[in-house]
Q: What sequence folds into this?
């Protein structure tokens, strides 16, 4: 197995690209691939300032590193959810801090406990659909923070495996709302920061190879509350299909990006109001986030007698 | 496990419908389901004459029986491909003959050997892509025959499992040509008989239960040349997803039927000519069928010196 570029012994082989690479050319290949995604989907203008949502996992750390290597002004952003079970939040935070120190990336840590005096496990007692609440919480904070900093965009570490599995899930249900917005870029709108997914065309195996190459040490703890069985099943399914047909995941997702307009025609979004607490667009005021975390009381609700 | 209708002990359980049935009400349920498909997609007007393509397998035999039970004038049509390996064609023919005799359905047998003095295995020596040639051959003969009889439509035994697997395959490649025509009905066009798939919403397990109920004995031999590994893999994949989420296959395919217009806008078909031999529309004249089976010589081809 020889490097496609220099014919030296190869370190990794990517069947989807019908190619193998040595250390040096794996690095160049990965950078070139992401640069191509950034250009093709207009994720970032040259030297833009970008907030990268860091979880401590390999995908988000690689996103930060590759964007920095491509010349963007990267700022890491970590939300400390306060999940101490299995040392999840502390270990994740430490992985981000060590990574950012090693790569000279400024890191902003946003602690739910410090900001709101409460953590996700504390919220869990009142809200049974915890993963949904936690996801909403993270999205709200990341959006609010990115808008405040004035950065060009918020980048997340979604991979090709994530995109293909989500696309499949949305096609299974023909969920037009999500099928309309599955590109690697979601443009900025009033009250919504631009969202970008620079690794949307890179498979997990490519990302793992790049992370290893650069000695990235992602957090090993997994969220003790995580319940994504369905999503994991779809990912495993695609990986078994990919084994028989290398390149299948990428062709599936890229084919979608060329056909996304088919799902966008009639996208009607329910009209949004402005949350009187945070000032951001929401389905109702106060928004769910402010009701949960900022103790905002629903205007038409009678406070419960406690 | 009790029958949903009469509370008698149930014979079968269909998790996708969250229902179980006794013999009597399984029959009624299956008929009602297919009648609903026929009505919803306008497959057939009342008492229409319909040619059912019979292979000897359970799906096509059940298609014929259920359409007859629903009051349509059914004519069976079997193409004897002359595949004697594993007794495939003779056993398939016998299954059709016995089925049609038992259910008083007229049967037309079309023998390649009798009509053209050649069989599929004989053709195989010259044409390597045999499954493609055989499929084209059957489609051509069924279409030509249906047009000749003046029947309202040609019915095939495609099941929900077939439709979901084909839809997935076409979405993986974003094959717009096929994504535009995946409904249970393909309307008649000049030179093309109307094609219908009455079992497009029934799963294999429902069809097997109905076949057993009526003592249908499908052929057990499988085509020794068959090479549908990919398709089988997709079917197995959907069945494993279905186990976790009953009704998933049907929701996926029905969701598609509601969204098929998204793939139909720009369908541009290459212009067709009329085959000077069979008189039917084709990409070139003579058409591939007439060149292979009727020894028609390509006008712009120089006959090979033999």
A:
């Amino acid at each position: 197995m020889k490097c496609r570029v220099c014919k030296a012994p190869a370190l990794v082989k990517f069947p989807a690209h019908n190619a193998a690479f040595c250390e040096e050319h794996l690095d160049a290949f990965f950078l070139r691939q992401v640069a191509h995604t950034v250009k093709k989907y207009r994720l970032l203008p040259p030297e833009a300032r970008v907030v990268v949502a860091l979880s401590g996992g390999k995908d988000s750390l690689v996103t930060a590193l590759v964007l920095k290597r491509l010349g963007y002004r990267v700022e890491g952003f970590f939300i400390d959810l306060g999940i101490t079970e299995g040392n999840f939040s502390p270990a994740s935070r430490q992985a981000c801090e060590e990574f950012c120190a090693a790569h000279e990336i400024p890191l902003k840590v946003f602690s739910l406990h410090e900001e709101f005096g409460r953590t996700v496990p504390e919220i869990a007692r009142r809200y049974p659909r915890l993963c949904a609440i936690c996801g909403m919480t993270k999205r709200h904070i990341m959006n609010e923070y990115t808008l405040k900093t004035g950065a060009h965009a918020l980048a997340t570490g979604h991979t090709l495996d994530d995109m293909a599995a989500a696309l499949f899930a949305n096609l299974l249900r023909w969920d037009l709302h999500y099928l309309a917005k599955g590109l690697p870029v979601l443009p900025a709108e009033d009250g919504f920061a631009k969202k970008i997914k620079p690794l949307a065309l890179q498979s997990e195996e490519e990302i793992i190879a790049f992370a290893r190459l650069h000695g990235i040490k992602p957090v090993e703890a997994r969220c003790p509350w995580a319940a994504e069985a369905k999503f994991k099943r779809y990912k495993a399914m695609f990986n078994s299909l990919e084994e028989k047909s290398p390149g299948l995941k990428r062709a599936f997702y890229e084919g979608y990006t060329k056909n996304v307009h088919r799902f966008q025609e009639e996208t009607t979004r329910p009209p949004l109001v402005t949350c009187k607490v945070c000032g951001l667009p929401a389905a109702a005021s106060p928004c769910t986030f402010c009701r949960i975390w900022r103790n905002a009381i629903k205007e038409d609700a009678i406070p419960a007698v406690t």
